[in-house]
Amino acid sequence: MYRVFESLDALVTVVEEARGLPMTANCVVPRGDVLELLDDVREAIPGELDDAQDVLDRRDEIVGEAQQEADDTRAAATEEAERLLTQAREEAERLVAQAREEAEETVAQARHEAERTVAEGRRIHAETTDRARAEAERLAEAGRAAHDRYIADGQAEQARLVSQSDVVLAARAEAARIVDTADAEADRLRRECDGYVDAKLAEFEDSLTRALRTVSRGRSQIWRDGSPNGAPAPSLGRNGNGSGTGMDLID
Fold first, then answer.
1. Which UniProt keywords apply (predicted)?
2. CB 15 within 8 A of CB 3
3. How far is 195 from 219, CA to CA, in rounded Å?
4. pLDDT of the residue at 167
5. What is the C-alpha separation between 101 and 95, in angstroms, rounded?
6. What is the per-residue pLDDT across 20-57, written as a single tens digit (0 to 9) for each?
7. Distances from the Cα of 244 to the Cαs of 232, 248, 251, in angstroms?
8. Which of 22-26, 58-62, 151-155, 214-218 is the most confident on average?
9. How far apart are CA 5 and CA 44, in angstroms?
10. From the centroid of its chain, how far is CA 81?
11. Of the candidates 245, 218, 220, which has an alpha carbon nearest to the alpha carbon of residue 234?
12. Angle of helix 59-160 relative to helix 165-223, nearest 10 degrees?
């Protein structure tokens, strides 16, 4: 077919470049060249027509082969997509199971840590309370002993200096001051004990809050894309937990 087009192009070129006859639209062309080009066209056309006919005869076969190849490609693509989908589903189930296991482990650790912290807080509170009570009793006893001692000394001094009433009054005032000082010291120790216990309980509350936030993040990771059983993910409340304070996760 390319040979036919080349010969026709050559003929067009010969005609366009031919010398024209004056006063007419005719021209003079080289007969030999034109005949040679026409012979080339005549020789090329049968072969090109045969090739075109062969293509037409094999059209249904070619179309069938193309259709079969397309069907095979579509089937292979479908099979590959199903395989990839199965792998993705298995991987998702594995990740969900792993996340659930990690969340359960985190909850167990948080529960254990909370119980340990509560026990430690109770122990510290009991020890601090006992120490404070013992110290208060000791100071009170010391105050009473000092009070009794000063009273006795005052009475003795009063007996010795019965006429010096100012000295007796001063002794009584000093004894009363010592007793007040002892009572004030006992009150101060009680306040310090209460402050110490409150600080330990605040530390426990902060530790428990961090543990609850860790548990909440684990639950959020599990339910972020919805429940694997098809149930809707629970709505998260304050601090990323569900409704409530978050203590239900431990209880």
1. Coiled coil
2. no
3. 36
4. 63
5. 10
6. 777 777 777 788 888 888 888 777 776 656 666 676 77
7. 18, 8, 12
8. 214-218
9. 10
10. 29
11. 220
12. 170
| pTM attached to this predicted model | 0.28
Inter-axis angle of helices 59-160 and 31-57, to 10 degrees?
A: 60
Gap between the Cα atoms of 103 and 121, Å rounded: 26
pLDDT in tens, 75-100: 888 899 899 999 988 998 999 899 88
Tokens (6 digits) for 75? 């089937």
Q: Which residue has the tokens 């479908």?
A: 78
DSSP 20: E
Separation of alpha carbons 19 and 9, rounded Å: 18
Residues in the chain: 251
Nearest to 29 by CA among 9, 40, 15, 39: 15
Give the up-direction half-sphere exposure of residue 143: CA atoms within 13 A in the CB hemisphere. 18
Cα–Cα distance between 204 and 181 in angstroms, integer?
35
Nearest to 228 by CA among 111, 133, 129, 89: 89
Is 211 in contact with 106 (CB distance < 8 Å)? no
Is the distance from CB of 139 to CB of 185 less than 8 angstroms? yes
Q: How many CB atoms lie within 10 A of CB 52?
A: 11
Closest CA to 5 of 13, 130, 235, 110: 13
Q: Which two tokens stand for residue 16?
A: 């366009």
In contact, 128 and 198? CB cutoff 8 Å: no
CA distance 179 to 98: 67
Task: Give percent helix, percent strand, percent coil of the chain, each to the nearest 5.
Answer: 85, 0, 15
